[in-house]
Every structure is written in structure tokens, then in C-alpha cells.
Design brief:
Blueprint (H helix, E strand, L loop, with lengths): L1 E10 L2 E11 L4 E5 L6 H9 L5 E9 L2 E2 L5 H7 L1 E4 L6 E5 H11 L7 H11 L10 E2 L5 H15 L3 E5 L7 H17 L3 E5 L13 E6 L2 E6 L1 H10 L2 H4 L1
Parallel strand pairs: 3-10, 3-11, 6-9, 9-10
Antiparallel strand pairs: 1-2, 1-4, 4-5, 7-8, 11-12
Helix pairs in contact: 3-5, 4-5, 5-6
The chain binds adenosine-5'-diphosphate and magnesium ion.
Length: 240
């Protein structure tokens, strides 16, 4: 179980997350939607331990182990994965090398890594050349999202936070990527926290809970019908 309790966090001079509670069981998909600037990416970064942010209160635990005091790499080893909204460029490190290092640090001997990489890049329609190019350098938005999905599929974390994995994707890529993630929830019981603005992500990804975040709080939770309603009428009813 990935469990967030009473989480209050933000910048040294500004609270951004103002009491978040969320629980994700293995194999479940939970979606967070909300207006720009409501704190969705901050939640993703705080969960992964980005050092810009301070946690003032609350807990983030994975299978009962508290993550808050751990550095990012130990959270990753514990089974947490973040697909960033804007994946960073890492000149000089290829995608294949980054994935190999991630597996090695988890003690996974991936002798079949080239085969796995080949299978997974084909599933999301990523060209072969990208595996040997520097991570995210000069990739288009859509290529970066496919690339993140390949990393996710090969590393096989317990839980994945997907920060707008659907932004910048054409409909065909969206379909491939959401199908791959849906399959992962069955294949190894991946738990997912997906941040999105669009219900179209949920066409092929079966959702267990939809949560509306406004000004650093979850103001409503529901099922897929909530995503459809938000997609239709926006957030105005929550904003004043
Ligand atoms: P969302 O992803 O929901 O659009 P963010 O979590 O990115 O929102 O941002 C929430 C608010 O906190 C925004 O007003 C943003 O400008 C601010 N913020 C987040 N991180 C930082 C940071 N490192 N420095 C300054 N402001 C930040
Ligand atoms: Mg964001």
C-alpha cells in the first residue's frame, strides 16, 4: 500500500500542500485532477523527495515503511517511480544506460535487458535509436513520454506517479501508453497515481478513484464519472 496521510508540505516560505490524504493499493489506479497551480506536481515531487520542498507534517509510507526521511534514490529502491511532467535532459547518459543503472542499484540482474528494452520500446512506438541517445536530449514532448513509459515498464516499480504522462501525446501514442500502463497493473500489480487534465487517459486505463485537488487540498473524490464531469465543466464550482 502507498499511503499519504495528513501531508502538509511546500517551500520554506510557502505551504503548497495543505493536508493530503490518499491511499493506493497494489494494482489500483488513482487519478488526481485539478486546476493549474493547485499543487499536483508538487505532490509528485514531494513523494519522490525533491529537496526544494519541505515536509511540515504528515507521512508518506510504502508497504508500511516511512519514506519522508529517505533520499530520492532510496525511495526509488523501495519501489517508487516518477514519470516527470517535464522529464529532464541528461547529456552523456543514454536511456539504455540509465535503465541498466536503475536495475543494478535495485539488485536486479537483467541479462535480458536488450531484449526487454526492444520489446517495450516497440509497445509504445519509440524508435530504436532513442535507446542509445542521451536521455531526453532534444526529444519531442511525445518522445519523452514514450521514453518514460519504457523506463517504467522495464524497471517495474511497485508504484508509479505519472505527472501528465498524456500531455503532448497524439491519440495513437496515448492509446499505446495508457494500454501499456493498464497492462502493468495486471502484469505485476503496479499501483498508479496519475495526474492528468483529461478523461481520455482513462479510456484504456481502468480507474479506481478520481480526486480533485484545489489549492493543495483534495476537495472531492469519486469514480470515473467525476473525471467525465470535470472534463465537461471544469473546476469553477470548486474555486470560490
Ligand atoms: P500543478 O502541477 O498543480 O499545476 P505545481 O505543483 O507545479 O502545480 O505548483 C503549485 C504552486 O506552487 C504554483 O503556484 C507554483 O508556482 C508553486 N511552486 C511549486 N514549486 C515551486 C518552486 N520550486 N519554487 C517556486 N514556486 C513553486
Ligand atoms: Mg503540474
Amino acid at each position: 500500500m502507498l499511503k499519504i496521510s495528513r501531508l502538509r508540505a511546500g517551500l520554506p516560505h510557502r505551504m503548497i500542500l495543505d493536508g493530503i490524504d490518499l491511499a493506493i493499493a497494489p494494482g489500483e489506479v488513482h487519478v488526481v485532477m485539478g486546476p493549474n497551480g493547485s499543487g499536483k506536481s508538487t505532490l509528485a515531487h514531494v513523494m519522490m523527495g525533491k529537496s526544494d520542498y519541505l515536509v511540515h507534517e504528515g507521512s508518506i509510507s510504502l508497504d508500511g515503511n516511512e519514506l519522508i526521511s529517505l533520499p530520492t534514490w532510496q525511495r526509488a529502491q523501495a519501489g517508487l517511480f516518477l514519470a516527470m511532467q517535464d522529464p529532464i535532459e541528461v547529456p552523456g547518459v543514454t536511456t539504455a544506460a540509465a535503465i541498466a543503472a536503475a536495475l543494478l542499484s535495485r539488485g536486479v540482474a537483467a541479462s535480458d535487458l536488450p531484449v526487454l528494452l526492444e520489446e517495450e520500446r516497440i509497445k509504445v512506438g519509440l524508435g530504436k535509436e532513442f535507446l542509445d541517445r542521451s536521455l531526453n536530449v532534444d526529444l519531442s514532448g511525445g518522445e519523452r513520454k514514450r521514453n518514460e513509459t519504457v523506463q517504467l515498464a522495464v524497471i517495474k516499480p511497485k508504484y508509479a506517479i505519472l505527472d501528465e504522462i498524456d500531455s503532448g501525446l497524439d491519440v495513437d501514442a496515448l492509446s499505446l501508453i495508457s494500454r501499456r500502463i493498464e497492462h502493468a497493473t495486471q502484469e505485476w500489480n503496479l499501483g498508479v497515481l496519475a495526474i492528468t487534465h483529461y478523461k481520455r487517459l482513462l479510456n484504456e486505463l481502468k480507474v479506481d478513484g478520481v480526486h480533485v485537488m484545489v489549492k493543495g487540498r483534495i476537495v472531492e473524490s469519486g469514480g470515473p464519472e467525476l473525471a467525465a464531469a470535470l472534463d465537461r465543466s471544469g473546476y469553477s464550482e470548486y474555486l470560490d
